[in-house]
Amino acid sequence: MADRLPIETALPVGAIDTRATGWWAMIFVIFTEAALFAYLLFSYYYLAVQPHAQHTFPEGGLPDLKLAVPNTIILLLSSGAVAWAQLNIEKNDKRHLVWGLGIAAVLGMIFLAVQYFEWAAKPFALASSPYSSLYFVVTGFHMAHVVVGVVMLWMLFAWSAMGYFNRVRYAHIHIGALYWHFVDAVWIAVFFTFYITPYLGLRA
Amino acid sequence: MTITDYERVPTVSTEQNAALAQKLKRLWETEPGIAGFFSTVDHKEIGIRYIITAFAFLIAGGLEAALMRWQLAWPGRHALTPEQYDQLFTTHGMTMIFLYAGPVLSGFSNYLWPLLLGARDMALPRLNALSYWIYLCAGIFLYAAFAFGFGPNDGWFNYVPLAARAYNAGPNIDFYALGMILLGISTTVGSINFVVTFLRMRAPGMSINRVPILIWGTLTASAANIFAIPAVSLAFFLLWMDRNVGTHFFDVTTGGSAMLWQHLFWMFGHPWVYAIVLPAMGMVSDGLPVFVRRPLVGYTVVALATVATMVLGFGVWVHHMFATGLPNVSLSFFSAASLIIAVPSSVGVFAWIATIWTGRPVFTTAFMFFASVIVLFVIGGVSGFMTGSVPVDWQLTDTYFIVAHIHYVLIGINVFPVVGATYFWFPKFTGRLMDERLGRWNFWTMFIGFNIGFFPMHISGLLGMPRRVYTYADGMGWDWINLITTIGSYIFAIGVLLFLINVWKSYRKGPLAGDNPWDAPSLEWATTSPPPPYNFVVIPTVASRHPLWEDRLQQHEGEGSHVDAGLVLDHGREAIGTSSLDATPDIILRMPRDSYAPVILALTATTIFVGLAFHLWWLAGLGVLATGADIIGWLWPERALGETREPAING
After folding, report:
1. Could you tell me which CATH number the domain at B33-509 has?
2. Engineered SS bond to B73: which of B26, B237, B395, B486, CB 3.0-4.6 Å?
3. First-to-final CA distance of chain A
4. Shortest Cα distance from B250 to chain A (angstroms)?
5. Counting runs of H as helices and runs of E as strands, what totals does chain A give?
């Protein structure tokens, strides 16, 4: 009977690398979140092609890139910091793991702060027009994801400092990193939609 | 730290082992009493709760329907005011579609999946508990609003501008919107759990071409939900924003679009239709062959057709919007897609007919319910195919023809399979058989009542009776048809009552069933009825599609499947993780203990929505903080989960 039973094979125990259940669950969390942003951006494009009065879509004319471009770079750098942290734990370098996560979390917070100024500088409010509603709701959804991500990064930072992870058991880090890379990647889509497409001619 | 520090060679047992069973029972058993009630993560317990809760909502929705049929039995009746009628038909739709049809299938799948797959539990047991608790909270939230007269009242698909603040000033739609977003969280986490369980928890040897069709049904439905639910949650969120903070998404006067609502709603809505029938079709595909004593004809095509139906199901949503003035090219495309989808979705029906044709039917109640699905599916399918044609749809849309269609689909391909599945799996759930004599009465009353009640709606629709009218004038030619419909629907209700009586009676006094009363082929019948908390003493090894029929079918690989010999896994709550396609063991998973985190998370999440509903922003904020704290506690790493040695305390 035993020819099909793995009796002599040693198997890892617990949550190890991409065999951890949580890693698979995060993949599908990201799928559903990606779908959410796809529907948000669908709403943007759907409303963008409706008839609008001049200079109401985007409201106040072409969007200012002064803050948005550097902020995009900051978010991408924080993804890089997380990737660096992941490389470090695979080498069992726990000190640089903590550093990588801390830097990423701080960069995430800088992104949030800059977004706050970006919001404050807009000449319109949430309830001004369809464009303003879209702008604040879509970037608001993204900011909410960044807030969750920053809290998550600080928790991973704390748990790393407490010595929970090593070069074999670091599923938490990899799962959290997946989420953070997603939050950064989806910003590219949001950024392209709100800041680039009006320059490409999608405006009223 | 090398990987070997975290490795263990799992032991294998080759004989019945009472001491092992005793030990596993201690490890997996839920604490009795109130503590266990709120903390259990046992998929069987959660599955049963899902089923009972869903049936409670079915009864509520049925009573709402009974009131409406009372009103419509004769022309010109005014027992209900138009406002009451609006709330009744909307709440009826919301209840049956969102609180019954989806969750009841989640219940069956929750109970059955680990047993069908030869696993000890779902991949994410705490998430499973969370899914149930949020479902319950969302159901209570929606029904609490209804109880205070604030039930939804613009139809279950809730079109703007009618659902906008300007035309519906009360809080009804706000409760509906928030409740649906909350319910969406439950469906999403439940769906993720099913997909991950499919990919990681199948018994060694159960490659993807060996899983039962019910698994395919729930898997495709869950995968679809992962992509479709965000559309409706977003639509309801944007509507809530429009109504409460003055955004302009659906406000046509300022450049928003009412059509955006319809697109977002139906991008979800049509995949959802398949999500609430495909698992039920899977029940028929697995249950029916047992009673014709042969394997299902065309397993592979049925499995592929299930997936194909779901994929195409994402490309047909505009057939709900044929009458909205969209460009003809768009209508042509979606009409073609809607007609083509008839091909994969009817594959199952042909497979069932061929299975019966080439088998030897045993006329049990379960068989009759499963076989009747063929008839009802064909009627509901043909009326759907008809309205897939644009000119026919223009004639029939918003008439009772559509009401007939939706009921043939939802009752014919959801309620009938579910009742059949209850007769089929009740012995596994409870250890007792249901009463076959009462079962016959139950079946014929439901089947005849349903057809008397709902078939004439096709005719009233063709005669021009619009849906959602609270009454109608004398002399329209609809009088007799409506009276027959009301009588039929009441007969159907008596049939459902007989079913409930049978469940109650059989649960108390039914004859003992034994492990495998139907001589069925799949793994759930290899364990005791009801199954022990750990499901299987040793993890089965699977060598064919029908592990318990291998002696007679001779289609297995090598020496065949093993259900009494296999991996032991008794160092705490453990399960085997296997590779996604071939199901080769690749990890020993540590499974969570019972936990209060899910029920607390459901309550804190509900607090957020209560806060939003009453504009108590501080309460919503508090809910967010409490939810965050609960999640952090839930995810806190545990060093012990990497232990390879057996903790002394478990012995």
Report:
1. 1.20.210.10
2. B486
3. 73
4. 8
5. 5, 1
Which chain B residue's Cα is nearest to A154?
A: B632
Residue of B nearest to A163 (CA): B639
For the packed helices B102-117 and B125-147, what is the interaxial angle rounded to 10 degrees?
160
Interval A116-163: pLDDT, tens: 999 999 999 999 999 999 999 999 999 999 999 999 999 999 999 999
Longest CA span, chain B: 85
Q: Please tell me the distance from the alpha carbon of residue B545 to that of residue B554, in angstroms, as a whole number.
A: 11
Using a CB-CB distance cutoff of 8 angstroms, which residues of chain A are in contact with residue B248? 127, 129-130, 132-133
Task: Show the tokens assigned to B282.
Answer: 């899977």
Does A7 fall in a domain? no
Q: How far apart are CA B451 and CA B87, in angstroms?
A: 26
- For residue range B283-330, what is the model confidence (pLDDT) as tens digits? 999 999 999 999 999 999 999 999 999 999 999 999 999 999 999 999
A202 in a domain, yes or no? no
| ipTM summary value | 0.96
Full residue range of the structural domain in which residue A175 is found: 25-48+60-196
CATH code at position A86 = 1.20.120.80
Domains: count for chain A: 1
pLDDT class for B1, splitting at 50, 70, 90?
A: low
User: For chain B, what are the domain ranges?
Assistant: 33-509, 597-650
Least confident of A77-91, A153-167, B5-19: B5-19
pLDDT in tens, A171-186: 999 999 999 999 999 9
What's at A154, amino acid-wise? W
Query: Helices B365-387 and B436-462 sit at what angle, rounded to 10 degrees?
Result: 10
> How many angstroms separate the Cα of B18 from the Cα of each of A16, A32, B308?
32, 44, 46
- The tens digit of pLDDT for each residue in B95-129 reads 999 999 999 999 999 999 999 999 999 999 999 99
Give the whole-angstrom CA distance, residue B172 versus residue B175: 6
pTM assigned to the model: 0.96
In a domain, A12, yes or no: no
Whether residues A1 and B241 touch (CB distance < 8 A) is answered with no
| pLDDT at B648 exceeding the cut of 80 | no
CA B438, B442, B448, B452 dihedral sign is positive
